Amino acid sequence: MITNVTTESTSASVATIPCGPCVLARTVAVTKTYGTGALATPVLHGIDLELRAGEFALLMGPSGSGKTTLISILAGLLRPTNGLVELCGEVISDASETFVTRVRRRAVGFVFQSYNLFPALTAVDNVAEVMCLKGMPRSQARDVSRQVLTRVGLGDRLMHRPSELSGGQKQRVAVARALAGEPALVLGDEITAALDGRTAMEVMELLHAHVSAERGVLIVTHDRRLERFADRVIEIEDGRVVGDLRDMQRSPARREP
């Protein structure tokens, strides 16, 4: 449980901001503006949000509403213009890139819509590479990679490169990479957009199984079919949170057919 917030900054006011129980990520009054002066384009407007362990949450809204910008800020891939961002007990909004990268590698798994696999590497090495970046010896990382890929149904595709895999199989490799090392928070951006209905549901099953008392998942999506998996649905429009429905209690065992 996260009960205190540490920060690379020396600001006492930031360092003592309390978190709620099992908060994995939090934003306070976060804004984001692209460009300056006459070309300035505000995208996010004062976002206050907490993501908690034990939740499978969806972030939904129309195109251009700020969903991808917000999830990128939560992952430490993008800086807010103003506001506070905490990730697993660390303030990252005003920290150095080195510090943010270290926190992200330790705490976050990210699944991209476009897979972002290394084309020259096999499935095993695509997953293992991320764990090597975290400091795991390569031989151990490849063993863990084989286990995770087998768990997501790719035990017979371990030595295949991305060009030899279908879209659904590539997304499974991306999911395995995100789940390897059991990160506290898994984030995904429109990960089912290019998948057929059956494969999309199978990928969501894999991610839902990751949720526990110490881990959570947030997925950006337009796909209303995915609500059946969600404990929480956050609606964003024009850069503002306009709805936040919790405790939907739609676990896979209780899903509609």
Q: Span between N and C termini?
A: 35 Å
Number of strands: 11
Query: How many separate domains make up the residues?
Result: 1
Helix % is 25-40%
**CATH class assignment:** Alpha Beta
Instruction: Give the uncertain stretches in residue-range form.
Output: 1-20, 250-257
- The rough form would be described as globular
Q: What fold name stands as the CATH topology?
A: Rossmann fold
Strand order of the largest sheet: 7-8-9-4-10-11
CATH superfamily: P-loop containing nucleotide triphosphate hydrolases
Biggest sheet, in brief? 6 strands, mixed
- How many helices does DSSP assign? 7
Mean of residue pLDDT values: 87
Rg, nearest Å: 18 Å
Descriptive notes:
- This protein is of the alpha/beta class and 257 residues long.
- 28% of the residues lie in helices and 26% in strands.
- A hairpin with a 2-residue loop joins strand 5 and strand 6.
- The protein is globular and about 50 Å long.
- The N terminus and C terminus are likely disordered.
